[in-house]
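Annotated sample (chain length 272).
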Amino acid sequence: MIYYKSEEEIELIRESSLLVGKTHAEIAGLIKPGVTTLELDRIAEEFIMDNGAIPAFKGYGGYPNTLCMSPNEQVVHGIPNDIPLNEGDILSVDCGVLMNSFYGDSAFTYEVGQVKEDVKSLLEVTKASLYLGIEQAISGKRLGDISHAIQQYSESFGFGVVREMVGHGIGKELHESPEVPNYGKRGKGIKLKEGLVIAIEPMINKGTKSIHQHADGWTITTADGNFSAHFEHTIVVRKNKAEILSSFKEIEKVLNKNKNGKTAKYRSRRNH
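Output written by the structure step:
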């Protein structure tokens, strides 16, 4: 059953979703060569709890940690560990919180140091496909319109769109109906109505769309070992334009500050 949200419920989901964005920002500046995903996970857990919320993923179906941390060929559900990140890696971080009885959920893929141009392209296309999907999340359209927009754009670059892992409704439960695939046909699926809150989350592979599940029961990797990117927003369907309840603004502020700092250091070295 699909639960459409009241304006009061939407505001509570927004509060949870914005805390997810702030949690991402708390670790964004720390993602660099040498750091471990387990260190980042501990920082995120402490930040979430200090802000009066509960990590949504920890204990969910037996998942052992606060964040899903998926480097390189890992698509989703990577378990944090004590292996240091390396220059040229990418790291997909999925974060969820439970606050005031409502969930927030958002994912972002980070560059670790300098990455190759083709990898940058994968991240840019995946992020752009998310926003193209969000553009279709308006009252009167169909769920397949979201799916088709993501698939068409991503595949136009030769990338693989993961089929088995999908977006979802969200509210008092972390995963609610409907499922939101990242592939599909325009004009198909349920008709979208105002008050529907969903998490849209393209998972796009540099190579094949095929994936492999590991023996730990959680980690999903690309079948061919190519890199995979993952971006996610929690949004609400509106009449003329979807409203994004989560936010990348705090994340991007930190990343831009780090980038500008590196540029300034480089210029300083050149001037001496």
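Annotation: The two ends are 66 Å apart (CA to CA).
Annotation: Helices lie at 7-28, 37-50, 117-135, 143-155, 249-271.
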